[in-house]
Amino acid sequence: MTLRLIISYFLMITGSAFAIVTVLGLLRFPDVYTRIHAGAVVLTISAVLVTMGTAIYVWDLFLSAKIVLIGIFFLFSNPMATHAIARASYKRQIALPEEYEIDAYSDYLGRDA
Amino acid sequence: MIMGLAIFFTILSIIVSYRVVIGPTITDRLIGADTIGIFMSLVMLMIALEYDLALLVDIVLAYAVLLFIDMLIYAKYFEHGELYK
Amino acid sequence: MAVLEIILVIFLVFSALMAVYFDEELISIIFLSIFSLVLTALYLLHKAADVALAEAVIGAGLNTAIFMSAISQIRHGDSD
Amino acid sequence: MNKLMKKIMISVVLTGVAFALYQNFSLMPEYQGLNEGLSNYIIKSGLNDTGSLNLITAVLYDYRAFDSLGESTVIFGAVSGIVLILSRKMLPVSSKGLSFIVKRALGIMTPFIALFGFYVITHGHLTPGGGFQGGVILAAISIIFSIVYGSAFDYRRYSPQTKTLFETGGALTFLGLGLAGILMEGAFLQNLGFLTAETGTLISAGSIPYINIGVGFKVGAGLAIIFYSMIQKTFEEDF
């Protein structure tokens, strides 16, 4: 049980804890947009932590580089995909309330056209 | 440890598929499908590590790329109602 | 190893049943992509790397793109 | 006169096909039973015969390359049918696309996706993958263009003429390597022996990497044509 294995197990277990938080958020949050928040932020950090842990676990130059590449790809792709889905569902008025107190995004969209 | 993590993520994705089945709006289902995709690609990574085969990691990368493109296609369809715009 | 295989097969059958169960096509497409995903993991578990890559590429990328374009052709006009 | 020329050309092509088929049939080994012969033979001596580490690629593009030619012909037929039915002239192209964040980020990510597709294609004889899988990843680039940046961008960057050029170029590469096999080795799609290098390097395994590149371009361009034809807007005036 070297230090490297301890670090990699720590990263993997932390990522798994974040994954549990993701599932709890997806199942228990009351609203669509809060669920999107759970699926974007926490899921990304979970996937990145687990991939970093596995990259330290294997500790081989090319294989670790490839796994780190997968982690970087998750870091970029998952927030962007959830952003696109959230924007689409905002534009299609899915599960939005009737009246807003603050709605900054519609001002932005009106400027963006 | 590695196989335990793979089983753990598989069970988590089965639990998430409850949201995909029951989700009231289509956005819930899409977010659930995205979550299941990332969990299962982590499962594939664990399987590749368990067998200690470097060439299985390519498949995880290919799947991650195509999952992202899938999500963009869904988002395009729900934003514009068609794929042409 | 055997436990993971049993869980994956149960998940596979579940997603296939759900893809047939729903009436709306979009949900069926989502469950079909989940189905091909689980099938890819099963192929990887049996060390069939080439088939797994083909299944991932076709099931995830190609099927969804073609099905979504077909749906956008069919439903164009009444979706708004 | 025109009909006569057509008949002469058809008979010349048919004679060529008959010659290739006769060459192949004369080289067939004796049937040895299902368990004894084929799979054990390929596992035992596939590496020596072809120089390809990935035995599935060895089967697909060396032992059974004629089948792969048939499969890519099927894709060609599908593309032709879909384009014939669905394509329309004078299209209004649109460039709305997705949001600014996705556009800017995919501008950074798209070259790496293309690089990964080329990696899967060119390492087909060393790692899992090959022409078909890498070709689908290349077709995903065209899908990204028409999804994220709007179909006008896809039309401007890779017009349908360019895609057709890529597709026919890939098919002609495949056929040309087959004819080179006839000329140099004596059978259609025989592996070219003089291209073989040390096993495990990138340029080895005879003509398999070049067939992979041809099939990759063909499949990628064909699927991009199918997707671009299928997302087109239908006009109400047409009906």
User: If you compute it from the alpha carbons, what radius of gyration of chain A comes out, rounded to the nearest whole angstrom?
Assistant: 18 Å
How many strands in all of chain A?
A: 0
Number of structural domains of chain A: 1
Specify the structural class of chain A: mainly alpha
**SSE series of chain A:** HHHH
Mean pLDDT of chain C: 84
Task: Name the features.
heterotetramer, A: 113 residues, mainly alpha, 4 helices, elongated, B: 85 residues, 3 helices, 84% helix
Describe, in plain words, how this protein is organized in 3D.
The complex is a heterotetramer of chains A (113), B (85), C (80) and D (239). Helices cover 84% and strands 0% of the residues of chain B. By secondary structure, chain B is mostly helical. Chain C has one domain (7-74). Chain C is built from three helices and no strands. Chain C is flat, with a radius of gyration of 15 Å. Chain D has one domain (31-230). Chain D is built from nine helices and no strands. Chain D has helices at residues 2-26, 38-50, 55-63, 65-86, 100-122, 131-148, 151-157, 160-184, 208-230. In chain D, helix 2 (38-50) packs across helix 3, helix 4 runs parallel beside helix 9 (208-230) and helix 6 runs parallel beside helix 9 (208-230). The two termini of chain D are 41 Å apart. The model of chain D has no long low-confidence stretch (mean pLDDT 80). Chains in contact: A-B, A-D, B-C, B-D, C-D. Chains A and B meet through helix 1, helix 2 and helix 3 of A and helix 1, helix 2 and helix 3 of B. Chain D: Residues 101-223 form the Na+/H+ antiporter MnhB subunit-related protein domain.
Layout of strands and helices, then pairs:
The complex is a heterotetramer of chains A (113), B (85), C (80) and D (239).
Chain A: H1 3-28, H2 32-58, H3 61-91, H4 104-112
Chain B: H1 2-22, H2 26-51, H3 57-80
Chain C: H1 2-21, H2 25-45, H3 49-74
Helix pairs in contact in C: 1-2, 2-3
Short structural summary:
Chain D: Belongs to the CPA3 antiporters (TC 2.A.63) subunit B family. In chain A, 82% of the residues lie in helices and 0% in strands.
